[in-house]
Structures are given as C-alpha cells and as structure tokens.
Amino acid sequence: MALIICPACGNSVSERAPSCPRCGEPMSAESRLSSPAEGGNHTPEPDKDYQFVDFDRKNYLRKKSNDDPEEVERAVRKWNWGAFFLTWIWGAGNGVYATLLLLIPVLGWIATPIVAIVLGTKGNRLAWESKDKEWDNINEFRRVQRFWAMGGAAVWAVLLLAVLILVLAVVFISPTEAGEMIEGYVRKRYFWFL
After folding, report:
1. Disulfide: which of 62, 88, 124, 171 matches 76 by Cβ 3.0-4.6 Å?
2. Which of 84, 75, 105 lies closest to 153 in space, CA to CA?
3. How far apart are CA 84 and CA 93, in angstroms?
C-alpha cells in the first residue's frame, strides 16, 4: 500500500483514503499523483503522439494517423476494388477476418456476390479501422489498397481470358474434331498396343 503526503498538514496518508485522518483535508487527484520522492504514485507522461480517443469516428480516425481527419475520411469512403475482386483473400490480408466465412461451401457460394459489393463499398473503412493493421499514414494505406486493386484486376483478367479461350475452343472446334482428338489421345495413351 503506497503512502501519499497530505498537502495541508504533511501527514502520510494511504492512497486509498478519501481524506487525511489528521486534518480532514480531502485527498484530491492532484495529491494522489504526487511525485515518487514524496512517497506518492507517479503517473508517466502520456506519449506525445497519442491523442485522446472518445467514441467519435473523427477522433478514432485521427488516432490512427497524424493526417488530416477530413483527408482520411475521404480516403475511407472510396470504393475498394481489391476488396471487391478478391473478397476473402483481401479480408485475410487486411485483418477483416469475417470474410473467411465465405469459405463455407454452400453459404459462401451464395453470399459471395453480396459480400463483394459490401466490401467494395465499406472495404476501405474496415481495413483502416482493423485492429490487426496499424497504418503509418494515409498515403501508405492508399498505396497498399491500390496494390490489392491491381492484384485483383490481374487475377480476374487471367480468369476471364481463360474462360474466353475455353469458349472459343468450344465454338470453333466441331464436336467431331474434338471427339477424334480425344479418341486419338486415348488410343495413343492407353491402347498403344492395338
């Protein structure tokens, strides 16, 4: 149990006492936070970079960055193409782990289009406010989200190109030619002795 000094009479008083037992002086917060040399509690100085956070969104955004809160608000309101294209992969990389629920077989297949649209609209805010990610500034945040958008666009471009090639192959190769190609392959591979 730590002792503090009464500011009125100089008596040693328990830090838990509401008032001094000798003179009756109420123990205020200032007297409880006296210096360690006087036998009281010492509270370290708050970090200069830390700003008080109440539950106001602008204060929360200000805490996460030293940038202008209006600039941060504009950035987190924008559409997020990376979240839209890559849904659960983007979510795992940005600390939005609820997106991993899309991996549940039937539920995920049904919910993916809806979740993709929600992530497109709210993805920047979810990534910025994620507890697992600490962004140094808004420019770093924008750079990373731009990288996700380019990666998502590249993945979808490759998938669409593969589908286009498959469709063209089906359209331009007649069923007879395709059957002959498959039959020739099977004959060479499995019935080479005939």
Report:
1. 124
2. 84
3. 14
